[in-house]
Amino acid sequence: MSNVYVFDHPLIQHKLTYIRDKNTGTKEFRELVDEVATLMAYEITRDLPLKEVEIETPVTTTTCKMIEGKKIGLVPILRAGLGMVDGVLKLIPAAKVGHIGLYRDPATLEAVQYYAKMPSDIGERDLIVIDPMLATGSSASVAINELKKIGATSMKFMCLIAAPEGIARLQEDHPDVDIFVAAVDEKLNHKSYIVPGLGDAGDRLYGTK
Ligand code: URA
């Protein structure tokens, strides 16, 4: 699992337990997902390049570090990916946000794009593709494929929970995309839900069924 980074920070794991719990209601679920997204963003941005800048403190002139101004783009996969966007934006407020919508083709069971709206300079940005659940890997793989087709060259994939099947699919299709996840679960069930998972992330975020 060389390109899979599992965030075992106690705060992330603690909050993820409440997120998984079926007794956690919509409001609390949404807040917790937002908080975990912020904590994950802190870890995901660990490798951002720094540059040296000269500043004046009240005492003297000194050289300090600043993020080099690398352009970042977030690409949530609709609709559940939206639930993690604001949490990431808290730490990277200047990031541009593209959106991609996918539906599942009933015949092939593969994800098919029905909507995409991206920043125009997508090829110059480091993209973080966001979906809370990496289940079969179909949505993530197709989304990344579509982004590559329109010029994306640098991508990371961020999710709350992954199934081994989804990780395998993404690694096979896109070995260049590192995967950042709070937990890798046991398996998929016959309906392609992650086990133990958290249920349907979109429904739990938005109170639908
Ligand atoms: N999508 C979800 O929301 N939950 C799963 O368990 C799998 C896919």
UniProtKB/TrEMBL annotation:
GO CC field: cytoplasm
The keyword GTP-binding belongs to this UniProt entry's keyword annotation: yes
Keyword Transferase: yes
Domain of life per record: Bacteria
E.C. code: 2.4.2.9
Keyword tags: Allosteric enzyme, Glycosyltransferase, GTP-binding, Magnesium, Nucleotide-binding, Transferase
Annotated transmembrane regions: none
Co-factor requirement: Mg(2+)
InterPro entries according to UniProt: PRTase-like, PRTase_dom, Upp_B, UPRT, UPRTase/APRTase
Positions bound to 5-phospho-alpha-D-ribose 1-diphosphate: R79, R104, D131, P132, M133, L134, A135, T136, G137, S138, S139, D200
Cofactor binding notes: Binds 1 Mg(2+) ion per subunit. The magnesium is bound as Mg-PRPP.
Free-text activity regulation comment from the record: Allosterically activated by GTP.
GO molecular function: GTP binding; magnesium ion binding; uracil phosphoribosyltransferase activity
Binding residues annotated for uracil, in chain numbering: I194, G199, D200, A201
Entry's family note: Belongs to the UPRTase family.
NCBIfam families according to UniProt: PRK00129.1, upp
UniProt-listed HAMAP family: Upp_B
Entry function: Catalyzes the conversion of uracil and 5-phospho-alpha-D-ribose 1-diphosphate (PRPP) to UMP and diphosphate.
Listed name of the protein: Uracil phosphoribosyltransferase
Gene that encodes it: upp
